[in-house]
Design brief:
The complex is a heterodimer of chains A (112) and B (119). By secondary structure, chain A is mainly beta. Chain A is built from no helices and eleven strands. Chain B is 0% helix and 53% strand. In chain B, strands 2, 4, 5, 6, 9, 10 and 11 form a seven-stranded mixed β-sheet that branches. Classes of the chains: A mainly beta (112), B mainly beta (119). The interface between A and B is medium-sized, with 25 and 23 residues.
């Protein structure tokens, strides 16, 4: 299975600040078709996870441009700028390149 | 609007069985792959498996961690996704989500249903 390693485990941020979350995979996430299926999800307290970013850097419908994804191969980053209260929760990276799909352990974003 | 609503969770004894349902609406059900994902309390999500769409013959893939014990199926006339879980263990205790699988990720999730395996 592809192991997804996220750092840091938790982050404290001031409102209006910027943060970055790292995600590394144990194998390249480049699919045979040339695409890289790395996604980012946010799970707000008491809610289901929601899709933020797909294929490394594409924002899902309705997602603010304050969220941006980058990376390639095995190293990926999610950046959140101008942090708002509604951004707080646990962020997960996930890969869909090969079965079984796997997720990172999560990064908890909290207010400083 | 895409909606996914799970049901069927609850308390079950070790070794028991349970079937979860997920009612889907707001999209053409047969066009989409559907997945089940679970999340033990305080832990990361774990993908359980997927059932493909009509164009791909409704075939299935499973996480080896549950293969042989869990079965995913779908009723395409009623737009319902199922998860049959057999020989349940304490470590199967989790919130179970159904999710639409599109573009190699999970674009919509249900609200989840709790399954507790305990004597």
């Amino acid at each position: 299975d592809v192991v997804m390693t996220q750092t840091p485990v938790s982050l404290s941020v001031s409102l209006g600040g910027q943060v970055s979350i790292s995600c590394r995979s144990s194998q390249s996430l480049v699919h045979n078709n040339g695409n890289t299926y790395l996604s980012w999800y946010l799970q707000k307290p008491g809610q289901s996870p929601q899709l933020l970013i797909y294929k490394v850097s594409n924002r899902f419908s309705g997602i603010s441009d304050r969220f941006s994804g980058s990376g390639s191969g095995t190293d990926f980053t999610l950046k959140i700028s101008r942090v708002e209260p509604d951004d707080l929760g646990v962020y997960y990276c996930g890969q869909g390149t090969q079965y079984p799909n796997t997720f990172g352990a999560g990064t908890k974003l909290e207010l400083k | 609007e895409v909606k996914l609503l799970e049901s069927g969770g609850g308390l079950v004894q070790p070794g028991g069985s349970l079937r979860l349902s997920c009612a889907a609406s707001g999209f053409t059900f047969t066009d989409f792959y559907m997945s089940w994902i679970r999340q033990p309390p305080g832990k990361a999500p774990e993908w359980l498996g997927v059932i493909r769409n009509k164009a791909n013959g409704y075939t299935t893939e499973y996480n080896p961690s549950v293969k042989g014990r869990f079965t995913i199926s779908r009723d395409n006339t009623q737009n319902i996704l199922y998860l049959q879980m057999n020989t349940l263990r304490a470590e199967d205790t989790a919130i179970y989500y159904c999710a639409r699988y599109y573009g190699y990720n999970f674009d919509y999730w249900g609200q989840g249903v709790m399954v507790t395996v305990s004597s």
